[in-house]
Every structure is written in structure tokens, then in C-alpha cells.
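Priority: low. Protein: TANK-binding kinase 1 coiled-coil domain-containing protein. Input follows.
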Amino acid sequence: MMVRQARALHSAAAALEARHLGAGGLRGEWAAAEGGGAAPCPAAERLAARARTLVERLRDSWQHLVRDRATRSLTYNDEQFHVLERITVAETGRRLRALLQRAAPQARARADALADWYKVAATVYLQTQILDKDVSAAELKLLALAARLQDAEHAARARAAARPPHPPQTPHTPVTCFEFYFTFTFHTQIF
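Result:
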């Protein structure tokens, strides 16, 4: 029974290892999902850094507009600068919107690929936990069997020690090939 259980555990572990540790394993599946037709990673195209720069420009332009609004009377140059800031805010906002519209589908596709891969990884993790639990149970059974075997051995030794010793047996003398041949030849010639 223990041998069958050990073979079953071994085959389950070997199958799990073959499915998920080789070239087609979790790392290979992630590489396939990452480069195999999925949208490129927004971080690889540095879209976050571009967006951060555009947001900082937008914030600076907005601060200029707020500061200019705080002062009631603006000179002609300040009014022209104010118009330029509005144009800058509008253009920066348009560029930021275009960047986000480009990055959002890529991020969604990457998130979907990660979600799919995570489902597989979670399944593999659950399978390893189940296998680990089964191995632990088999180890406990094996330890219990070893303890019973050791107890049986001690009991057998105790019974053997309590039994009276056997009378010594007469040792057999080994017969050499020559003696056997001689005896066999002698007896066959007599008859």
C-alpha cells in the first residue's frame, strides 16, 4: 500500500514538474503572454514618465493662470502671456489625453494577460500545496509503520531471548569435487 501511494505521489510530482517547470512552464507562459501578440507594456514605452512630465507642465501652466487671475489688472504683455498659457494648457491636456488613450488599452491588455497567468499560477500553487499535504500524510503513515515495525522487532527479540537455546547442530563437512568424483566413480564401478 505504501509503495503504491509513494508511486502515485511520485508520478503526480513528476507530472506537475513536467507541466510547469520546463520551457513551457509558468515563466514560459508569461513570456508568451508578454511578447506573443499582447500589447506592449506601457512602462517599456515610458508612457508613465511622459505622462508625469505632461502633468507637471499642466500644473505649472495652471499655477500661472491662477496667479494671473489673482491680479486684477494685467498689462498687455501679461494678457498675451495669459492667452499663451491657455493655449499651452489646452495643448498639454490634448497630448495627455492622447497619451492616456494610447496607454489605457495597453494597460488593460497587460492586466488581462497578468490575470490569466495568475489564475494558472494560483492553480499550480494549489496543486503543490495539495501534493505537499499528501506527502506529509504519507510521511506520517511511513513513520507510524516504521514505529510498528520497530515494536514488532523488539517483541520478536524479546520472545527469542526468552526461548531456551537450541542444541548445537553437527557441522557438515564440505565435499571437494575430487572426493565426490572418487566416491561416485567407486560406487558406480561396484554395481
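Residues 177 and 183 are 10 Å apart (CA to CA). The mean pLDDT is 79.
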